[in-house]
Specification:
With 335 residues, the protein is mostly helical. 73% of the residues lie in helices and 4% in strands. The chain contains nine helices and two strands, in the order ααααααααββα. The protein has a two-stranded antiparallel sheet. β1 and β2 form a beta hairpin.
């Protein structure tokens, strides 16, 4: 078994590389690196505040792609004398690229789904990390050690298991985006909101396309084209990241504009609100001296920042004081 796998890239380098295979690997490598450079430029030109889960997961996921591709390039063509160096680059890039990609999707899922529901997505990502990253790492290092025959057979089997599991993980997250976006499209009804409809359709189509791309990746893996699959994976993830970056920024801008209009007192449009956002509720509260004060409460799609909450409380406090001041002269005249 070890001899059969030794020339395919599972163990050490690829033996007897044809010109077509070498050009395919080089082409995938070039496309992946170019996409990462473009994504990096877009990240640093788009983000004003370079903080938060979305920024860092996007940055780590994108920079992990060329590291992963470089590691396999060194390994397959034996460009580095130490196999552990190329294996380490592959592992670091693989962690960043695969789990980083899922964290990018998770970091913007709260824009259209309830927080209680997306908490299970984070649990799934963490569990899959320990179930599929850690064992594959041990088997990968073992297959490229001085005694590869002890690990190579198990690595070939587990490689198929882990790529299926991580593809299924991304299927689930993409399906959640499609489901929530579909519900928001149904809530639009006959109300003409072209921008909201365009964003939701774009979100659905991008996630369907990502599912189809993962299926092609599984096809190369189960066809036992290991050298093609590992290099194709870097290109595929760079394309998916570009698509996600574009649509998630459009989604964020849409929800942010809705949230700002809500804070400014404008009537929120039902076309943009997620399914769990309710209409404003009116209640009558009894204040000092028996004066009745009306207040409006509203559940929004995201929690305002500390500054926004302070501003809202200050506005409510000033409004209450004005109502009390206007009511007191009338009470004195009646007395």
């Amino acid at each position: 078994m070890a001899n059969r796998l030794s020339g395919q890239g599972y163990i050490g380098k690829i033996d007897h590389v044809s010109l077509s295979i070498a050009m395919t690997i080089a082409g995938f490598f070039a496309i992946a690196v170019y996409n990462v450079i473009e994504i990096s430029i877009m990240i640093f030109s788009t983000f004003k505040r370079r903080t938060g889960l979305y920024f860092w997961s996007l940055l780590i996921a994108s920079w992990g792609i060329p590291v992963h591709a470089t590691g396999f390039l060194l390994k397959f063509f034996h460009l580095c004398g130490n196999d552990y160096v190329s294996a380490t680059l592959v592992i670091i890039g693989w962690y960043s690229m695969v789990t980083g990609q899922s964290m990018v999707l998770y970091s913007r899922l709260h824009l259209i789904a309830e927080k209680g529901r997306i908490r299970w997505v984070l649990v799934m990502i963490i569990v899959d990390f320990f179930l599929f990253h850690v064992p594959t790492t041990v088997l990968f290092y073992g297959s490229n050690s001085s005694k590869p025959y002890l690990f190579s057979s198990a690595y070939e089997i587990y490689e198929k298991i882990q790529i299926t599991a991580f593809s299924l993980q991304e299927f689930i997250i993409s399906a959640m985006y499609i489901w929530e976006a579909k519900k928001m499209l149904h809530s639009i009804g006959n109300i003409k909101k072209e921008e909201a409809r365009s964003v939701m359709l774009h979100l659905i189509l991008v996630n369907i396309l990502m599912i189809l791309m993962d299926i092609t990746l599984l096809g190369t893996e189960y066809a036992n084209e290991y050298s093609i699959e590992t290099t194709y994976k870097s290109t595929l993830y760079s394309i998916k990241l570009k698509l996600e970056f574009a649509i998630l920024n459009r989604l964020r801008a849409l929800v942010k504009s809705q949230h700002l209009s809500t804070l400014s007192g404008e009537t929120p449009s039902p076309a943009i609100l997620p399914s769990f956002v309710r209409e404003p509720k009116q209640c009558q509260c009894t204040g000092i001296g028996g004066i009745k004060v009306s207040r409006s409460f509203e559940v929004t799609s995201s929690i305002p920042s500390i500054q926004e909450q302070t501003s809202i409380l200050r506005k409510n406090s000033v409004a209450t004081e004005l109502e009390l001041d206007l009511s007191r002269p009338a009470d004195r005249r009646n007395s």
